[in-house]
Amino acid sequence: MQEAVLRRAAEVAHKSLTDFILDAAYLAAEQTLLDQRLFMVSGDQYQAILDLLDRPESDNPGLADLLSRRPVWATK
After folding, report:
1. 3-class secondary-structure state, position 1
2. With a threshold of 0.70, does the pTM exceed it?
3. Structural domain spans, the chain
4. Which secondary-structure segment (H or E) carries 20?
5. 45-49 contacts: CB < 8 A, separation 24 or more?
6. According to the model, what pLDDT value does residue 76 have?
7. Which of 35, 47, 56, 70 lies 20 to 30 Å from 9 when distance is taken between CA atoms?
8. pLDDT values of the chain reduced to their tens digit, one per residue, 76 residues
9. How far apart (Å, rounded) are the C-alpha atoms in residues 65 and 69?
10. DSSP readout, 33-63?
11. Rounded distance between C-alpha atoms, residue 68 and residue 58, angstroms
12. How far apart are CA 13 and CA 4, in angstroms?
C-alpha cells in the first residue's frame, strides 16, 4: 500500500520513484536539522532570552549535583 501511494505521488509530481523518494527524504532531513538549529521567537521573547543570558550567575545546587555525577552511558 505504501509503495502504491509513493508511486502515484511520483507520477503526479512527474518524477521517477527514486527521485521522488530522494526529494522527500532530503526535505525531511533538512527539516529535522533545521529543527535543531532554528527557532522563531517574537521581539519580546528574544529580549527575554537576552535578559536571562545577561543575568549574573547564581548558585544552582541541583545542577551542580547533576554535573558531578558520571553519566549512565559512560563506560566504567
Report:
1. coil
2. no
3. 2-68
4. helix 17-37
5. none
6. 64
7. 35
8. 999 999 999 999 999 999 999 999 999 999 888 878 777 899 999 999 999 999 998 999 999 999 999 988 887 6
9. 7
10. HHHHH-----HHHHHHHHHHHHSPP---HHH
11. 17
12. 14
